[in-house]
UniProtKB/TrEMBL annotation:
Molecular function terms from GO: endonuclease activity
Parts of the chain that traverse the membrane: 12-30, 36-56
Keyword Acetylation: no
Coiled-coil stretches: none
Keywords assigned by UniProt, alphabetized: Endonuclease, Hydrolase, Membrane, Nuclease, Transmembrane, Transmembrane helix
Any single Pfam family the record assigns to this protein: Mrr_cat
Organism this protein belongs to: Saccharothrix xinjiangensis
UniProt domain Restriction endonuclease type IV Mrr: residue ranges: 77-189
InterPro entries: Restrct_endonuc-II-like, Restrct_endonuc_IV_Mrr, tRNA_endonuc-like_dom_sf, Type_IV_Methyl-Rstrct_Enzyme
SUPFAM superfamilies from the UniProt entry: Restriction endonuclease-like (SSF52980)
Name of this chain's protein: Restriction endonuclease
Length: 202
């Protein structure tokens, strides 16, 4: 059986040839029109600088707009659960936490956001984006208490919700040392108050 001939890669050769032709034409133009070439180059650099400045301004404006939204707990009302986790992560960063990471998802064992507090302690947060009428019960607190310290090695375990907690949930949290952040505390924190991890461990 006759061997099939390998097809030569023509495209790379064409590209190289085209690049050489363009380079030669550019060199010829610069040699023939040095002043015009300088003007064109200057205009290109100026245009590039203008585009860069506009992009930076756009990003800065977006950051300012996002920061304003983050200061209002009402902005969480239309969020998904994952959006709320990102929002909570931004609050932690603003409060001086570092190594903030959103880890929520399948198999997260109750941890949605982890971080390192200003005191060096490990922060583990469970986020519950609930409707105001849907309170967080004691079972949720008990489940989180079973993994927060022993599985995630949390020094500062928090449950953050856009709703409130039931009385039994608060009792369990007080016994096992979990900080609960309801909508009222969350609103204070978002407006620029101290992070609950700093207040409750002071």
């Amino acid at each position: 059986m006759a061997k099939r001939r390998k097809r030569k890669k023509v495209l790379p050769r064409v590209a190289v040839a085209a690049a050489v032709v363009v380079a030669v034409l550019v060199w010829w133009f610069v040699q023939a029109h040095p002043v015009l070439s300088a003007v064109i180059a200057g205009a290109g650099l100026t245009a590039g600088a203008v585009v860069l400045v506009l992009r930076l301004r756009g990003r800065r404006a977006e950051a300012v707009r996002q920061a304003e939204l983050d200061r209002a707990v009402e902005s969480t009302d239309g969020m998904s659960g994952s959006d709320f986790e990102q929002w909570t992560a931004r609050l932690l960063r603003r409060s001086g936490c570092v190594d903030v990471e959103v880890v929520g998802g399948a198999g997260d064992a109750g941890a949605d956001v982890v971080a390192v507090a200003p005191d060096g302690g490990r922060v583990v947060v469970q986020c519950k984006r609930y409707a105001p009428t849907n309170k967080v019960g004691s079972e949720a607190v008990q489940r989180f208490s079973g993994t927060a310290r022993y599985y995630h090695r949390a020094d500062h375990p928090l449950i953050v919700t856009t709703s409130t907690f039931t009385g039994p949930a608060r009792d369990v949290a007080a016994r096992v040392g979990i900080t609960l952040v309801d909508r009222r505390r969350l609103a204070e924190w978002a407006r620029g108050g101290a992070a609950p991890i700093l207040v409750d461990t002071a």
